[in-house]
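Incident review: delayed structure delivery

Summary: a single-chain prediction request sat in the queue longer than the usual turnaround. Root cause was a stuck worker, restarted by the on-call engineer. No data loss occurred. The affected request and its eventual output are reproduced below so the record is complete for anyone auditing the incident later.

Affected input:
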Amino acid sequence: MNVTFETPLKEIAGLNWELVRLLEQELHIATVEEALLYLPFRYVDRRFFVPVDDVRGPDGMVQVVGVVSQMEIVGQGRKQRLVAKLQGSRRSIDVVWFRGVRFHYRRIRIGSCYVAFGKMDRFGSTLAMTHPEFDLYTEEMLKTARIEGVYSSTAKINRLPQAQRAIADLIRSVANVVLMGVEDPLDERFYARCGLIPLRQALWDVHFPKEFAEVERALKRLKFDEAFFVQLRLQQFRVRSHTLNSGIEFSRVGNRFNKLYKEELPFDLTRAQKRVLHEMHDDMRSGRQMNRLLQGDVGSGKTLVALFSMLLAVDNGYQSCLMAPTEILAQQHYSTIKRFTANIGVTVALITGNIKRGERERLRAELQAGKIDILIGTHALIEGDISFNNLGIVVVDEQHRFGVDQRATLWAKGTNRLPHILVMTATPIPRTLSMTLYGDLDVSVIDELPPGRKPIKTVHVYEEQRGQVYEGVVRELAKGRQAYVVYPLIEENEKMDFASLEEGFVSLKQFFEPRGYLLAMLHGRMSPDEKNYAMRAFSANRVQVLVSTTVVEVGVDVPNATVMLIESAQRFGLSQMHQLRGRVGRGGEESYCLLMTPYNLSPNTRARIETMVRTNDGFEIAEADLRLRGPGDIDGTKQSGVATQFRLIDVKQDCKLIEMANAKAKMLIQEDPLLAKPENAKIKSELARRALGSRYSKIG
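Output delivered after worker restart:
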């Protein structure tokens, strides 16, 4: 039988069939490749044997040698257990089994010398091991003793006799069958120049190392391969969009663009905004599809840059659309863009999920007839009955809240040629993570704020200071300003969190309304009309305090708001707190962000709060977030694919490896974009194999 990485384990003779069944059922490990990449989460050194007399007490995993001096089955029913005494010359330890009692009772011989390997615990004055690996001691053990991997497991798998050994034995059997036939996708010169070992050796050593250094070398090779083939795929997408994907040529800068830029805009663009506009215009007049990621900190003016890109499309006879993740943000964009374009002859429309059927039909007809220049909306934009007359550019705001499939559906609404793509995010992305998520996109960064913006003053306050904090908010309201009070809302605690929000709202009303200030509440359970009413009331300053969940996190723009009070700030991530802070400081007035927490905080939480107090720099905050929480927890990146791309890579720890893989992939694709050269045939084949297995998501 020809065994490959894709061969199902159940087709290989001689394996532990019950374990094969449970691995697929419990851990979704069904193929040879999945078994070989089922890596130990830690390793234990079994090269050393400790006599019973030398055991010092509970001290993690230990391998003990002694003679079984007595053995008995005690207890009844579920409490039945086998207890064996492992004896030294001066002391003994108990070895206990609650499962497989009869099996172990039959195989253990009193008076024989055994090795027990497991976790040592203390019960009163007695040292004991529960469910250890337990084998007859032989001289051969001294020769074959080794470092062993410990595999993550489940309760059902752990019920198998000596489950860890069974897993290792299965992987050894699989490796023995398949590894001799494994063809390395990288040739020897390639991996040697990168300081890597052969793939076959890496797959063996990561499970069965002789020294701990072998584990490091094996992981380096396996991680490199993972990063390299992801980067290779992204670089191919990038080259394809630059050289193969025919885009729409926006050859001229027309009247609408010029009128807004020269006559209607009440301020100058920043140098960064102008630079980014030039980068985008170069893309859009090149005849190739633009695929660009626009990063900019909160308040840096990304929406205005996006509007100018859409006006380029309109001036060249094409339509534009902007997709936002929430109705509040879509409404905000609509209001902003309507205001800027009021006098330049552009038709702007809004479509959201709650639009009435008749209005939707009218918009749909006007869109197909080419009467709408700019369409702004939410997920309603990607529904099947929405189609454009001639879509020229797609702007996706806060893209991490949209899945890849949603974006692709929207792009497919273009005509023969692909519309230009602008992906905007106000969540600054660390360089390594950006390389991982958006390697196929060109990146533009707006790295300065409009002039006149004062840095937001961030203060850490404690719940015991609540009265003083509220008085400080009143002083701002007395100047005619407004304030946000934000409560956490975590799905797992949704009922409790809503109760906390509503209780907080009542308490805040009791404090602020007698002083002449009105409050409104905003949360995700409200209807779209209720949300819009609350936002309009706050925007018009009919309401001075908006009590909200994190639905105000993205895009809400009320320049008169100068206070952001974040309740239970210990429950927010760094990036999320930074986004919330960005809701204030949008006018010319001094603004404040107050982070309220209990006094007792974990070191990690205190580090997050201190970072917020220390800096307003979104990129510094993103780097700190990556260090403190890891890529899977950075706001939104789970939705964008980083969690599914990598099994082995840790983006925050493996930066250098990712950078090396990125450099090698770029170099290779520059030399051979289609991997058509004979010397790259194995790499091309491996890339296709991985893509076929859907192990890597297309990003962007």
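Verification: Residues 631-644, 694-700 have pLDDT under 50 and may be disordered.
Action items: add queue-age alerting; document worker restart procedure.
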